User: Which sequence fits this backbone?
């Protein structure tokens, strides 16, 4: 009888664990009256529970459906879950130690938790549907700064969708190589020589493009950007953690001129062409994008970088106010950790950078290729419904954002390519995209795992209940900045 009582106390502790995890998964369904709260917070993929549902019923209806996008949950759920789960873990640790009788079969807390989590069906994800490229044949796109990096990946992704893609940059030979890859992928690549720090060159580039498209443009992706790290001296200072006043003033000019300002200038000259396309075929809404990053809400690299990305996000929101009613949609793109040529070069030169980026995780599993952004852009271009919540964040201070990894996950897109394809040749084998860097899929095996006791770390291993891609922390939490140095 005493053994039964101790065992009951052990399993009673799991109520706290389940309560915290249920909050993470079912909070989108709860609130003062059914607890519905339309905030851009933790997401999960699944059916919506009925109002005032019990935890047991919530678990039952929260079974994921791969065709549905992530749902949103309120702050109180994130906070309670964050408090409940660690407290429950401590209680489990204490109770399981007391429940083990001398000579009895080993029944550690890790084994108990494995049993409970193995029986939790709502956390098992169905296999994603097969992915296929969209068909954008007959559409015209411009991708600025497409010589390499994300711009090259976007151009190739649009090429897979059979679009005609004008790629801009300063190196004619490299541009021609990118254009050839676009054509080989199934589209039609056209190189356009242009230095985006020179407004006159930008004007001439769009004049030339207009002649070839009858004055219409369906897609503009503003990607041209001059990284401050492209200067070896500045790169060295940044790697040592230099503050803004220890860096040359040119860092500000580089980031804002070929970045924020060049996005504005390209949008300025492209706007008449985008509007012409909207008038010519009203059911279709042209798409205007700009490449930004999580640096728009949290400190990243340098002060100048973060200001430029935050301003880029604001630029897209304000352009949506002006162009949206006229039939043009504007979206800010947020890739995650992207394995561009520049990032790979910096990792080779400074191996410690890899540790700073991903900790002990496998870079190949947590970083995405530039192509993934291109495939997401192709989806946005082909389907106007993907330019609205939940695929694009709701109006507000963080509105009009498209988080590439999350949209790729919710739409079951793939990264890389099959053997023999251009995508496979350039970006590696076909694979599941990396998790969003604000999701437990990234944070669980990374930062969260190191805080757990050794016997509980399996929970934060890939596939564990504390490593689910569907659970994503609020952007507001990221805005608090990096952890304070001890």
Assistant:
């Amino acid at each position: 009888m005493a053994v039964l009582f101790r065992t009951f106390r052990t399993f009673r502790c799991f109520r706290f664990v389940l309560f915290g995890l249920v909050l993470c998964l079912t909070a989108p369904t709860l609130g003062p009256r059914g607890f519905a709260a339309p905030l851009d917070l933790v997401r999960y993929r699944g059916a919506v529970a009925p109002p005032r549902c019990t935890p047991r019923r919530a678990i039952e209806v929260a079974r994921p459906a791969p065709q549905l996008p992530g749902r949103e949950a309120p702050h109180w759920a994130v906070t309670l879950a964050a408090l409940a789960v660690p407290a429950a873990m401590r209680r489990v640790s204490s109770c399981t130690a007391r429940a083990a009788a001398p000579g009895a079969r080993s029944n550690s807390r890790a084994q108990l938790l494995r049993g409970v989590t193995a029986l939790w069906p709502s956390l098992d994800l169905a296999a994603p549907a097969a992915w296929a490229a969209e068909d954008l044949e007959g559409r015209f796109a411009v991708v600025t700064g497409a010589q390499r990096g994300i711009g090259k990946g976007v151009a190739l992704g649009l090429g897979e969708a059979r679009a005609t893609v004008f790629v801009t940059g300063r190196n004619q030979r490299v541009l021609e190589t990118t254009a050839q890859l676009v054509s080989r992928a199934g589209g039609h690549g056209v190189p356009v020589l242009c230095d985006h720090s020179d407004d006159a060159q930008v004007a001439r580039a769009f004049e030339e493009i207009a002649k070839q498209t009858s004055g219409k443009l369906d897609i503009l992706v503003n990607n041209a950007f001059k990284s401050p790290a492209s200067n070896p001296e500045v790169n060295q200072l940044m790697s040592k953690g230099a503050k803004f006043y220890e860096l040359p003033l040119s860092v500000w000019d580089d980031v804002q001129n070929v970045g924020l300002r060049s996005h504005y200038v390209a949008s300025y000259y492209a706007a008449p062409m985008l509007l012409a396309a909207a008038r010519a075929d009203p059911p279709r809404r042209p798409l205007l994008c700009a490449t930004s990053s999580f640096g728009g809400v949290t400190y990243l690299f340098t002060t100048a970088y973060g200001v430029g990305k935050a301003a880029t996000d604001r630029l897209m929101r304000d352009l949506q106010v002006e162009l949206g009613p006229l039939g043009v949609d504007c979206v800010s793109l947020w890739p995650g950790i992207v394995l561009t040529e520049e990032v790979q070069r910096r990792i080779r030169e400074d191996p410690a950078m890899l540790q700073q980026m991903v900790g002990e995780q496998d870079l190949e599993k947590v970083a995405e290729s530039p192509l993934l952004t291109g495939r997401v852009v192709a989806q946005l271009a082909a389907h106007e419904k993907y330019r609205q919540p939940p695929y694009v964040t709701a109006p507000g201070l963080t509105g009009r954002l498209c988080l590439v990894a999350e949209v790729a996950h919710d739409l079951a897109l793939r990264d890389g390519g099959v053997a023999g394809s251009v995508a496979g040749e350039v970006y590696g084998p076909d694979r599941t995209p990396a998790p969003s860097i604000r999701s437990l899929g990234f944070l669980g095996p990374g930062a969260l795992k190191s805080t757990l006791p050794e016997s509980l770390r399996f929970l934060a291993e890939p596939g564990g209940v504390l490593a689910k891609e569907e659970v994503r922390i609020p952007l507001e939490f990221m805005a608090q900045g990096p952890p304070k140095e001890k």
About this structure: Residues 221 and 289 are 5 Å apart (CA to CA). The chain has two domains: 2-127+441-478, 140-434. DSSP finds 18 helices and seven strands in the chain.
